[in-house]
User: Fold these one by one.
Assistant:
Number 1:
Amino acid sequence: MTDAVRIELSVNGRRRTVDVEPHHTLLDMLRDDLALTGTKECCLVGECGACSVLVDGAAVDSCLMLGVEADGLEITTVEGLGHHDRLDPLQAAFLETGAVQCGFCIPGQLIAARAMLSLNPSPTRADVEEGLAGNLCRCAGYEQIIEAVLAAARDGNATEPRTPEARSTGDPAATPDARVAPQ
Amino acid sequence: MRAFSYERPAHLDDAVALLAEHGPEGARLLAGGTDLIIRLRDGTLRPKVVVDVKRISEIDGSIREAGDVLRIGARTTMTDIAADARIRRDYAALAEGAAVVGSVQIRNRATLAGNICNASPAADTSPALLVFGAIVVLAGPAGERRVPLDGFFVRSGVTTLAPGELVVAIELPLPADARGSTHVRRTRRRGHDLASVTLACLVSADGVTRIAYGSLGPRPWLVIDEAGVLADASASDAAKLERLEAMFVDASPSSTSLRASPDYRLAMLRVLGSRAVVAAGEQLRASGAA
């Protein structure tokens, strides 16, 4: 066993200090060390996209990135979309169009869609297909998912700015997960 | 995943020293990680230390002119390459190839340097790099050296990178005159898939056509039509096809790959080769030459 490495990063707008084992992926760290279980573990080879998160605003597969690589970076998980009392417009559109069936792939779909819309607020259907090509849905809910993303884009509020500060609440040190290092 | 330690050297000398200390089995380089982490997890690689190259000051993610080449730093991702205006204009086949690697999530992490070091015969950037005459800039215990990419690939997963060396940058000679280029490929489905055939074509105003193709043997192959048959508007389609077939003589698709049968790949190689020659020629004419 090797020693854990202390890293500092921003997760959903909150500064976090984590002692992470070098062989733990960003996915492991989010789920096991930070108790953010919205991000899903599935194929572990970068094909399904269930583990997608934003790293400095870009969608990546968190199963293919080490936790230590996130040192100094800004991570957004599905928990960072919307607010506790208000859904992100994309989340609302997914519900309205019936895009959520079993739900397992949805966090990754939402993250990929958010990343695509931030670069391209008025996507064509082909743009959405390409933007979500790295996210598989085994319920085969693709039509509804694409429809939801297009609907969110049409409503024009899909790119509502969500600064980390706006989402930040409470004391970063007052986190429930035991493995977070003292600040 | 088996435990390993993690090093993030700030300077090239430190990285070279780490590689020398731990040897090729003991230390593995980490850039984008999209191939490495899969193999760390499945146990095919069991290094003692993973050396992250992303914060080495001498290795950057920039794409810039340096003398008579366009220099692409080893940290440059597929997303950066596909979006770069200079590459889209002067090295269109490379931008097109980078744009179809994996998914958005993969392209945001995967680096061009990692793609060539992984040396997959199906890599979608390799054909374009070969037709543009890419040079790999390596650093190691003996200092820096430059290797033409055609002399870098050996077979799947094997390159002429010596123990203790790492890729610092990839250089593309600047275009000497007008030209057209394109990348084409065949996959089982649209979206995220590995290529059954991946091919790039570059036609220059002097009539020379360069084609490189992958997923048809242990490494991607570069072939050149110096005679100018493929770019000759007066040559018959039959003459061009005959020339292409002669150029594709080294194609040796695996009979064990599940993606496509050898016969299918060879048939598609001819089709894609012919289409790419036409498309690259159209680009050349659109650029105002010929």
Number 2:
Amino acid sequence: MKSKFVSVLTVSLLLALPLSLPGQKNSCIECHKELDEEKLRAPGESYTTDIHRQFGLGCQDCHGGNPLQDDMELAKDKSFKGAPEKAKIPEFCASCHSNSEYMRRFNPNIRVDQLQVYWTSQHGQLLRKGDPNVAVCTDCHGVHGIQASNFPKSTTFAWNIPQTCGRCHSSQDYMKAYGIPVNQVDDYKQSVHARALFEKKDLSAPVCNDCHGNHGASPPEVTSIAFVCRQCHSSAGELFSQSPHKPAFDGLGISECEACHGNHKILAPNDEMLAAGRNDICSQCHDTGTEPYDAGLRMKKNLDHYVASFQTAQDLLERAEKQGVEVSEPRYKLQEASTTLILVRNLTHGLALTAMEAKLNEGNKIIAEVKALGEAALKEARFRKTGLVVATVFIFLLALALYLKIRELLSKPTSST
Amino acid sequence: MSRLWQNVLSYFETRFKFSALIEFGKKKKVPEHKLSFWYYFGGLCLFLFIIQVLTGVMLLLYYTPSIDAAYESIQFIMGQVKFGWLIRSVHSWTANILIGAIFVHMFSTFFLKAYRPPRELTWASGFFLLILFLAFGFSGYLLPWNELSFFATRVGTDIAGTIPLVGKSLKTFILGGPEVSGATLSRFFWLHVAVLPAFALLVLGVHILLVQILGISKPIGIVESKEISFFPGFILKDALGWLLILAAIGVLCVFFPWEVGQKADPFSPTPLGIKPEWYFTFMFTTLKVIPSHIFSMEGEVLAILAFMLGGLCWMLVPFLDRRSAHEMKSPAFSVAGLFILLYIIVMTALTYFAPRL
Amino acid sequence: MNRRKFVNFFLGGALLGTVASLLYPVIRYLIPPRQVEALAKRIAAAKVGELAPNSAKLFKFSSSPALLINTAEGQLRAFSAVCTHLACTVWYESDTETLFCPCHNGRFDLAGNVISGPPPRPLEAYNVEVVGGEIFVSKKA
């Protein structure tokens, strides 16, 4: 009896095995994996990492069909939707992603307005007009290996976004039809924002979607560029708004920040952007000899003078440090002077010459203190060397005297040595 | 000699009776031959140790052994205390020179077979001194509580922790807890300024006493019988060497003062290329290059055990080298010693020239 | 003077000079320096009553800038003024009663937590004690 029980158990287990394998039967993937054509084989392979799969969704949840059927005709049953054509993709995805009752099963906080926003974008508007070449959901998010946007390998993770947008927007052939330039990604890559993002891994740095929107992607309008920049650079923005430039720019229809800083290739600003500098921007509007231009000249002169003074102080400290003197206290003080410089440079946005000069004066006092400490440190370094020479001279004299004494003692074989 | 000086001397003579000692020193002879240059290294070690004690005592005046204050106190010594930079740099430089001198002294006595009877215990006590001074170096290195010292200590104690059976308890005992912390700093400070100096003085006393009682050994095969007196001849020559080393230390400290470094942050990741002080690097690099498994034993564990066994054999050399005990040349031991020396030199050099091993 | 006497004088003189040049630094070392202690872990940041409510004072603490704030309700708080984004110095903004970093608009609340902007971590908070007429700031244990 026992042996019969065992054999029945074994057979049952063997029969149950296929049904208990992890991930139920999926004839779609089984079949598609064997196909020769790359386009038909890829879905099966890339779906293993897809976020939808992690939530328990399978091929049939989007494409319909019956994954339990091995026969192709039976598998592609009534419910089978197949792959949607490009123009229908947004609605295809939205059939779930815009259904808040459905989506909250998986993530109660996820947004469900993407399609609505998409229709307001350039891509959406052109798609509605019948252009099949614009970006749809799958162009940015991928098709079967979709990852959450906060996953570093995702095509929509912050530092991957320039590449994702650039797939089309950097292609001359592709953009020819729209007359859009293709240098944006290249320009962006030279910017401070790109450096912060790619080199310092600062995820708070802006990428394409931060200024252009993601689902509602459009170029910001002239008036709204400033608002975009002010999201992070509010202090510069406020100063600008209080300056005479604001009404002037608004009147001329010039975009505020972009006029001086550019849009994609935003480089680290420097004092050379002021009047008479190498990258003089003031002269774009102001003629030499005018009051505004002279104000710009004064700003530049003050800043140059301060920077030179700061540099001298720093050099002093470095020289002292190289000679071995400890300069952490003066260095700390110099930090304050550096912060002053940052603040004053920011004040240029407000064109507030008096405020700038007042602040620079404070900074100059600090620099003077640091220079004094630096000089003292150098003096200390000289003192050390002098002291060393004195001590070493005495030591050598002593050594010489000792040597003579030794010779004297050892040259007397009969004495009590 | 002036009257005053005579009176002073005789006053102390009646009370301390040191003239017997001086007579002993004058009678005592030190062999002089082409290899007697090496004799000076022992006295050099003593001189450097004295410098360490003096500068160490002075550093104690301003140093604070707590993780909130240790780094800052070193910064204070280097920046605010007059000549603090000098005292501290002398202490740090001399520590390294001392250990170098110990190695030279050890290997020179080895090759000159000074360990042969009756000097086996001089050799053994010397071996203990080597261990004590390596411990001095290891414990002292943590005290500034900067990045390098923190991580070097962590790496070093991690290695100690891999010793089979006793490793974990040993590591916990050394660290005063499961990892490098304020408790470790207190413990290392305790070792560095109290325990190790006490033991070192004891063992050093024995070592020097033995040298005085037994005299300085003459290498096997040297026939010349030229000798100089210990006092004043040898001592004055010793002093000459000491003066020159002192001048060299001064130059080093003025042109290469010891750095303060960055304060240790236990939460930051181990910096790349972290390594212990140079005198430990030959062991450190051995552990890096040894294959991870040898005959189903972990390579690192095997290497550590091999070092311990090696150390034991090294200490027992006087008892193993029967030929030199009978005043016969024992080239086998010389060659073995040469290999060991070359191994140490090569592995140390590799640490710096091929850091990516 | 014979040779022997010369050598002895020479020896004595050189010995004296060497000992003096070694003793001089030692004695200077032992004399207490002007700044009496190493950078303190506990510092008197201000006097009681020095700060009006809803204002702040920037002071140096253990070689970095720090802020002592007297909140509008009269509570004393102290923080490291080093912004956790890119190390600019943080200011106290009395109209918003928040700590503000002018470099990239980082903003912290009166508990040091980040409320907006790029800073990735909260500001380090310090202990504040009032002893006698002074306000002492020290690192949290």
Number 3:
Amino acid sequence: MQSKKAQEKLGREKLRRIIETCRSVEERSLDPFLIDIGANLGTVKEHFPEWMIPEDLCLDAETLHSLASVVKLQSEWVKHRSTSLYTDPFLLEDKLKKMEKGEIARTFLKSWHPLIEWEQISLHSMAEAIRYWNTLVPLEDRWKETPPEQVDIGSMTREELVHQRILRDKSFSEELEIFWQELKKTVAGKGEKGKIRYWDFIGADTYKETVNRAFLTSFLVTYGYATLEIHPLEEETFLVPYEKPVAKTGMKQLVSVPISVSAADWQKWKRGELE
Amino acid sequence: MSKRKAAYASKLKRAIHILFFKRHAKPGVKGWELRKALGSDYPKVLKILDDYLKNLDLEVKTVFEEERKIEKPSLEQLDRARHYIALRGNLVPKEAKMMGWRIDDFAGLAITIAYITSKKGKASRDEVEALLREKLPGWKVGLNIERYIRYGYLTQDESGQMYLDWRTRAEVDQKALIDMLLSAETKA
């Protein structure tokens, strides 16, 4: 014999299943007569004495409501079948599939009585149009060209141009020359075996300055003032200054070496974590 | 002309103005609007107008809210109904094509209306599209359905179920359509 709890659990499951079936009939437009209302009502009646808590009573009420909806659908189904519009959808579908589309269209035209309607402007839209027209700015005002702003001719000093970064303080070749000398001095002071770690040379107090030094260094290498020594296995890059600028054209095929100078790398270098 | 005849002639003109020219987004007018403009005897004016339009192959069509034809409608039902001017007879395919519709479009509409009618006025869009794909190129199916919806022949709810809309009820004799489709001779 099943325990009371197991009996209640089974009852709840049965009611939920009834609700689900009713819902699927409603949603998928299935034949409502697929549901045996009498048998389902019997199930609801059988389990009703077991329900003690409000949740179970609500479930019972929901089941009855679902069954009532199916009864309503059954009534509509009967009504529809008794009307002159009833047609077996499968029969019609089959017929439509077999018919030529020209024939379907001709058949449709025999049952089609299109409406006659004349489009015209209404008083309301006329009033709207007048309102719009009255507030519309004339074309010559809308398309008026804005004349270029007139500025008086004046003069600027070199310092002002440098300040606005239009001119550089020194010429680029001059700057590069000074930078090369600095590289040579640094290598002599801090370097080993005539070379210095790349980051030890380009690294500066600010990230902006570091990027600027990396930019100038790239030109030192390109124009033959220095060269790069790369140890791929150790992931080390060294800068080796030349004593005299070396013309690189025609020696061998030049290669580009991309070196990332990100803010994160710069911070690592500052903390001494960048090898 | 008697005074009574003159009054009806004037009402007839007024009815033509109201019914032919579109006053709202949808064509046609409600019965209560006609009552307001023509008086409570507007059903009689409509009857005279309908007789008059017979010679022009046009008719006054009344579509009831109840979605079915009512043999002897009450004044209240007529007030709530929508009245239109429609073609009494039929168009031949050549004339229909001049309206900008292709044979494909008419066939698609016929299939859709007949199928939804047979499904008690409601069918899922997927089912309708699958059936249309039997006759129309795939790329055209969606476009055509959207067109039928735009013109007011069909409507669709948020769950993708399709229904017949006001224009189908006003323009298409659904029973005749289905009867003719079912009785059409098909190739074996």
